[in-house]
Amino acid sequence: MSQDNTPSETASNRPDSQSTASSRLPRQAVFIVVVLSLFAVEPAAAQTNAVCSADNLPSMIEGFFQLTTALGIVGLAVVWQADSLIEMFTITPEQKKGLKRHKRSAMKSAVVLVALGPLYTVAGSMMNLPLAQCVDLAPW
């Protein structure tokens, strides 16, 4: 009844069976995703312009976009004023550089937020995107 230090045959075969099982799992997952996407996407693709055919959905999307744009511009004003106020009380040049960098990034975000809606409206209508034909994303 002494114990051997040699591995048994089942233990030596275990890594091979684990690697085979682990290689099957991603293949099966990919196959399932592809099959489901073929059948699940078909009904959604059959719908034509579902957003525009809804009663209040285009106006709700426009209102949401105008609200978020207005909140973004107000947020820019608050951040700009707060950074300017804090900048008056900073002593080190590194802190001032950091605040200027923060103000610059806030301005970039606001410009992107304001320009994105009209850009999508113009580019979407040129590319005949269905959402751009019935929803005006200009914030003004």
From TrEMBL:
Keywords: Membrane, Transmembrane, Transmembrane helix. InterPro entries: DUF7985 (IPR058291). The chain crosses the membrane at residues 29-46, 66-89, 110-131. Residues 1-22 are annotated as: Disordered. It holds the Pfam family DUF7985. It comes from the Archaea. This is Uncharacterized protein. It comes from Halovenus rubra. The lineage of its organism: Archaea, Methanobacteriati, Methanobacteriota, Stenosarchaea group, Halobacteria.
